[in-house]
Design goal:
Rossmann fold, five-stranded parallel sheet, 7 helices
């Protein structure tokens, strides 16, 4: 019987690659995205397009509103930092970090996985080009996996462990793009920008755009991103 996996799908480059990897490993994929009050809701259109292109079993979009707490440039009235080069990106945890976001997202994924009887969850976190996010580190994933196996009825009652898969965690952005391209990912469907315009065109200067640009350059792959005219 084909094993099921829940894939956290933002519509960005990393999550699209994680989905492709899960499919290549033979999993029946169930994609989960979030409308969480982010300023760049157009990413949900990208997530829908990626899910459809990948032929997932189901794609759910959960509504939660992290604007209730704010504290991030993605969910509050705070300017998204812009730079000219990757080298100019600030050190430490950036203001685009959304408090506890991956913990929240993984908890929703875990709940759906328990209902599906899926023991595998994929998340496209990366600890190389991760811009300082604490919830993209291996230590966080290991701790969450331990908790998941102690907190759910289906893990306690079964012989199988819940596994949080992080296939991109030690890859550079260029390596991720190379891997995804080999698996047939259409990166033209994805959106990574923290501050896109209403038409979905990337700003070209936020941390995520700069890391994405460098990844395409270093991988020798054509960048299909639509950028704003001032880039």
């Amino acid at each position: 019987m084909t094993k099921k996996a829940v894939i956290l799908l933002s519509g960005g480059l990393d999550s699209a690659t994680a989905l492709a990897i899960a499919k290549s490993e033979g999993f029946a994929c169930y994609a989960l995205s979030f409308s969480y009050g982010q300023r760049h809701t157009i990413e949900l259109e990208a997530a829908r397009n990626v899910a459809e292109d990948a032929g997932v079993e189901q794609h759910k979009i959960s509504d939660i509103d992290l604007r209730l707490f704010g504290g991030s440039a993605l969910t509050d009235q705070i300017d998204v930092p812009k730079s000219e080069r990757v080298e100019d990106i600030g050190k430490g945890i950036p203001i685009t970090y959304v408090p506890a976001r991956n913990t929240i997202f993984l908890s929703f994924a875990l709940a759906w996985a328990e209902v599906l009887g899926a023991y595998d969850i994929f998340i496209g976190v990366n600890a190389v080009d991760y811009s300082g996010y604490p919830d993209c580190r291996p230590e966080f994933i290991e701790a969450y996996e331990t908790m998941a196996n102690r907190a759910t009825a289906y893990a306690i009652d079964a012989d199988e462990r819940i596994r949080i898969h992080t296939p991109l965690i030690s890859l550079s952005k260029a390596d991720i793009i190379t891997r995804g391209t080999a698996l047939g990912v259409d990166y033209g469907l994805t959106l990574s920008c923290y501050d896109p315009d209403p038409e979905g065109r990337a700003c070209g200067h936020c941390d995520s755009c700069l890391l994405r640009q460098r990844g395409f350059e270093q991988s020798g792959t054509t960048d299909p991103t639509r950028y704003q005219e001032n880039v």
